[in-house]
Design a protein that fits this description.
This protein has 251 residues and is an alpha+beta fold. It has five helices and seven strands. The longest helix has 37 residues.
Length: 251
Amino acid sequence: QHIKQLQKLNQLKDDFMNSMSHELKTPLTSMKMAIKMLRQAQIPPEMREKYLDILEQEWHREYNLIKDLLTLQQLESGELDFSPQELNLQEAIDRLTQSFSVKWQESREITLVSKISEPNLKIYTDAESLEQVLNELLANAGKYSDSHTTIEISISSQRTIKEENIVIAVTYVGTGIMPEELPHIFDKFRRGQGVTDRAVPGTGLGLTLVQYLVEHLQGTIEVTSNPLDDECSAFLTTFVLRLPQIQPSIS
């Protein structure tokens, strides 16, 4: 059993190194090509702008990867600051919707719909960590959604006698999570079966980072993934995030 665990760990490490190598090499290759084209003596202004855009996009891709790795290291060591503040959820979702909708509509005609149970719903939490969680969940949904489908993010408030929680659900239709994969979906470096073959970008750190950040916010996260037909050609997958409404401290 110990040998099997070591073999499994080595396989995860190899998968991670392959994904990381791809995520590092691909942007660098694009940047090298853009620099080579920009060195041409008589490049038209519109082409110059095109290659500058490529450089900027690939720089952001590399920067975000490094940022995720550093954030994960801070979370594991307990060094990430927890700085709660009031966040207007409608405003936060509107920003995300605008950013993702344009990209998804242009590339794969995916629609993003947001639903909030009450206007001006606010949460008192670490705003930067929450926004990173939502970014990761929506980016993950975009990777695995089928074209011409709708991704939905819904937010509601649940009150009990003892506590008040904010519940955020992200739902999409597309490539599902197999039952045997569900218990490991938040494992570090873990990626679903076949994602490398389908050239789905990622390193297997996104959902791990989500779980760490949710715990950092004193919340919980669950996922379900159910086939929509007998052929299992498409799945309905939902990530449900529950966060406590932390009371602001009175100074």
